[in-house]
Amino acid sequence: MDLAPYACDPANSRGRRFQEPPAPTRTAFQRDRDRIVHSTAFRRLVYKTQVFLNHEGDLFRTRLTHSIEVAQLARSVARPLGLNEDLVEAIALAHDLGHTPFGHAGQDALNECMREHGGFEHNFQSLRVVDELEERYPAFDGLNLSFESREGILKHCSRANAQRLEAREPGGVGRRFLEGTQPSLEAQLCNLADEVAYNAHDIDDGVRSGLITVEQVRTVPLFDGHCGEALAEHPRLQGRRLLYESIRRMLSAQVYDMIDATRAAIASKAPGSADETRRAGPLVSFSAAMREASTQLKGFLLHNLYRHPQVMDMTGQAKEVVRALFAAYLANPREMQAAFAAREDTPRAVADYIAGMTDRFAAREHERLTGERRLV
């Protein structure tokens, strides 16, 4: 792998929290990726949803398919920029490990329930999964990933949680949130690839669901331009083939724009190492025109899909399920699995237990504990 001088080199990794001998045939970042793929939390993502709940259709995106799409897009940008593709893949595959059931609705509800107990942040929860909650190794909790993978997984973090991390791990992954510096370029790339992926697949899933139409999406200039180009080349194109071709062209345009804009930003700062990029400000970006076009697309999806009455109804029901689960487990921790019930910090144990649930397990538990049947 030919790495640029500003890429993260596994030979210069800041290491793991618990020292381990190196793998004979894999770099540190390859090993991180492999541990993530084999984790329990990664397998659960197949039954955790994005916009549409798991029972609403077999072909809608899940957190697992979304994470794979983010990894593919991010690797497509990483290679021409000379960044570390293995690290990019590890971060992309792990970035949603801490997400609750029922997408952002579950996260918001759990944060409300935990307001008096330190709150709930899904990015921070993803770090907790790989640092503490996975139970696979005899010598330590978590997956013991490298600093660089953990840094990328912690996309956002409140100051309070950053201070807790800094107290436990001075100079570690919480430090940049206190100093206002950036993560590695690989981490910055995964952040933007995440945005590109969910904008594109939410168009696809939204049209598949019938909640929005191609004609509606064509009011968005970014989509409409590529749809028009597709029709100019293939005048008889229609239906799902037209939708797929338009999204494909839109994704390609965003990827190439990201490569060009980031390459220019790197050239202007000329960082000589991965650490220098962390002090150079955000470098992975769109051009100004593409950023504006992407913002317009996000606005369209917010008003026409995420706030659609049908989505809002399911969101409301999902929040009620999470609130009811939290209240039930807090009142009687023995309803949880024994390892969670035995922990001293009951509210955090309840939050960890609920956050690890799949959509269908959460719905079944809610019915078992309350006698009510929702989200079916």
From TrEMBL:
InterPro entries: dGTPase, dGTPase-like, dNTPase_2, HD/PDEase_dom, HD_domain, PHydrolase_assoc_dom. Residues 63-199 form the HD domain. The keyword Repeat does not apply. Keywords: Hydrolase. Gene3D superfamilies: Hypothetical protein af1432 (1.10.3210.10). Transmembrane segments: none annotated. The keyword Mitochondrion does not apply. Residues 1-27 are annotated as: Disordered. GO terms for biological process: dGTP catabolic process. One of its GO terms (molecular function) is dGTPase activity. It holds the Pfam family HD_assoc. Belongs to the dGTPase family. Type 2 subfamily. This is Deoxyguanosinetriphosphate triphosphohydrolase-like protein.
